[in-house]
Amino acid sequence: MFSLKRFNLTLLHWLYNSLCFVVLSVPCVEVKDGVESVQLPCKTRHRLPEDAKVEWTCIYIRTRKVHVYENGSDQFKEQDQFYRERTKMNEDLLKTGDLSLTLKHPTDWDHYTYTCTVYSREGNILLKKQVELNVRGQCCRYRSEVKGHLDCRYSAVLQLLCLQLILGFTVLSGEQVEVKVEEGSESVILPCKTTSDLPEDTTVEWTHSDPELMVAQVHSNNSDHPKQLDNLYCGRTKMNKDLLRTGDLSLTLEYPTERDSGGYICTIYRDKDILRQKVELQVKGQR
């Protein structure tokens, strides 16, 4: 239902942001999967202060820091592990105004909208620009002495095989899993299984995207992080012990209600690699 109040608030928010910083046009960069690097452009003629902070981010499940420049140098400690050793910016970027970002070895997983934001020392936004990156995937080809072309009609299956070969993950199905349960049940399990003996630095994150994005469970550094969970899931979710050893990353949700219905995503971060499993939960209400 249309809400005039919400529309007015949205309009005021947009006008406020427009007055606070310079918004440039949104270009789209298209590149083929497999190229050595791609440049995300961001240039300005405005004079930037020497103590300005430049931050490249993208949003997938949460805001991820792609590259951070502050105090005259790159701040790699703030960078998301998915982009480690894959990004670089120009020298003297604040003097030249060329804030472009070079992303090495782009793949389908880098297909996002990226945002370049410049902050003043006080934290005010001086400039903001978005760039959409479109990475076109290619058919999987084995590097061997046998030369040939694999039919792209089977690209979905081939890409899945590529992920299993390159990432070391075993994916049971590339399709969305559906789980049904009645309201009032003690618990329900959202399945997600992969290869056993995962590295200790693997991070597993369960999120619920209906009606808004919420974090249901986070496991990293061999421990759970309840402080990062949405209030709706505090004390209601748990994962198996030794999940990295067994590869069983399934999520147990206690006392499910109709409000818990919707799409869930299990995201697995391993070094620079990411794997996702979708689960659709349908909770039937009691009559």
Automatic annotation (TrEMBL):
Arranged from A to Z, the UniProt key words for this protein are: Cell membrane, Disulfide bond, Glycoprotein, Immunoglobulin domain, Membrane, Receptor, Signal, Transmembrane, Transmembrane helix
Where in or outside the cell? Cell membrane
Its GO biological process annotations read: cell surface receptor signaling pathway; cellular response to lipopolysaccharide; immune response; negative regulation of T cell proliferation; positive regulation of T cell proliferation; T cell costimulation
Q: Kindly give the membrane topology term recorded for this protein.
A: Single-pass type I membrane protein
- Which Pfam family, any one, appears in the UniProt record? V-set
Q: Which residues form the signal peptide?
A: 1-20
Question: Start and end of every Ig-like domain?
Answer: 36-132, 181-282
**GO cellular-component term (any):** external side of plasma membrane
Descriptive protein name = Ig-like domain-containing protein
Q: Which organism is it from?
A: Astatotilapia calliptera (Eastern happy)
